[in-house]
Design goal:
It is built from 13 helices and seven strands. The protein has 303 residues and is mainly α. A hairpin with a 2-residue loop joins strand 3 and strand 4. The longest helix has 32 residues. This is Cytochrome P450.
């Protein structure tokens, strides 16, 4: 079943196809940086920058009308916040499902130039298309948004690393990989053992559910030297921020391009960008949240 859903998506999220989006990502990023500059300091970087950029891009890829994007973003926030009750969670989920049913029907009737329209040409049912669309929307919004916000926070808290990145733009690709390793916003993954296996002296029986700690793996001292340090010059990659194997994140190349464009543009546009509050006052998401992140990131700069 996993292969049935994944196969039609693989060719739509290739490295080449995502890199072709670079110019559009640059445009969207510039628009939001212009809005930040026009509004003036201070700003919440989460709402002004980190959330809107991946939100616009994933909605455009799936063909979600512009007017509906704000509503989608709020509902996805509810899914991942870890701060709402069951009633509000169910209401948000039901609202998204209802909307997606209408969107799938609209794409079948009048296909447009987007991924969801392309998927309606295959053999996926309407229910399956709704599930695929919801997964892509939720992942496309929140994971990259949290990484952009936390990445900015991490660089502002490590000024020597930010200075190195400013001094050598060629470090940008490696810095993105290091931030993905260092932050690991998707904290855990669940897998089921297909056969009996022994890991670290522990027997895992076939059929057992295994909780994989991504952030622990990404700070494994046997794999990374000084793993708790942020080092934009670190080489080698090898992190598990996007998972591994057949379940590796389909949208990883889109996330990489968005970060590669957005973070350097932010620091180039606002060279005096800094936290507007002490680091310990930046509010983090609760431990019950699906993703590691900040609720908001107050920043300021010299206007």
């Amino acid at each position: 079943m996993h292969s049935r859903y994944r196969k039609p998506l693989v060719r739509r999220f290739t490295v080449r196809r995502m890199r072709l989006l670079t110019e559009r990502i640059e445009q969207v990023t510039a628009e939001h940086l212009d809005a930040m500059a026009q509004a003036g300091p201070p700003a919440d970087l989460v709402t002004a920058f980190a959330k809107p950029i991946p939100s616009v891009m994933i909605c455009e890829l799936l063909g979600v009308p512009y007017a509906d994007r704000g509503s989608f973003q709020r509902q996805v926030d509810v899914f991942h916040s870890g701060e709402v009750g069951d009633e509000e969670l169910i209401a948000a989920y039901t609202g998204v499902q209802t909307y997606l049913a209408g969107l799938v029907a609209a794409k079948r009737a009048n296909p447009t130039d987007d991924i969801l329209s392309e998927l309606t040409e295959g053999d996926l049912t309407d229910e399956e298309l709704k599930g695929v669309a919801l997964t892509l929307l939720a992942a496309g919004f929140d994971t990259t948004a949290n990484t952009l916000a936390l990445g900015t926070f991490a660089l502002l808290r490590n000024p020597e690393q930010l200075a190195a990145l400013r001094a050598d733009p060629d470090l940008a690709d490696g810095a993105v990989e290091e931030l993905l390793r260092y932050l690991s916003v998707a904290k855990t993954s669940l897998r089921v053992a297909l056969v009996d296996a022994e890991v670290g002296g522990q027997t895992i029986e076939a059929g057992a559910t295994v909780v994989l700690s991504v952030n622990t793996a990404n700070r494994d001292p046997e794999r990374f030297t000084d793993p708790n340090a942020l080092d934009v010059r670190r080489s080698g990659g090898g992190h598990l921020a996007f998972g591994h194997g057949i379940h590796q994140c389909l949208g990883q190349q889109l996330a990489r391009v968005e970060m590669r464009v957005a973070l350097p543009a932010l620091f180039a546009r606002f060279p005096t960008l800094r936290l507007a509050v002490p680091p310990e006052e930046v509010p983090l998401r609760p431990e019950t949240a699906d993703l590691y992140g900040v609720r908001c990131l107050p920043v300021t700069w010299d206007a």
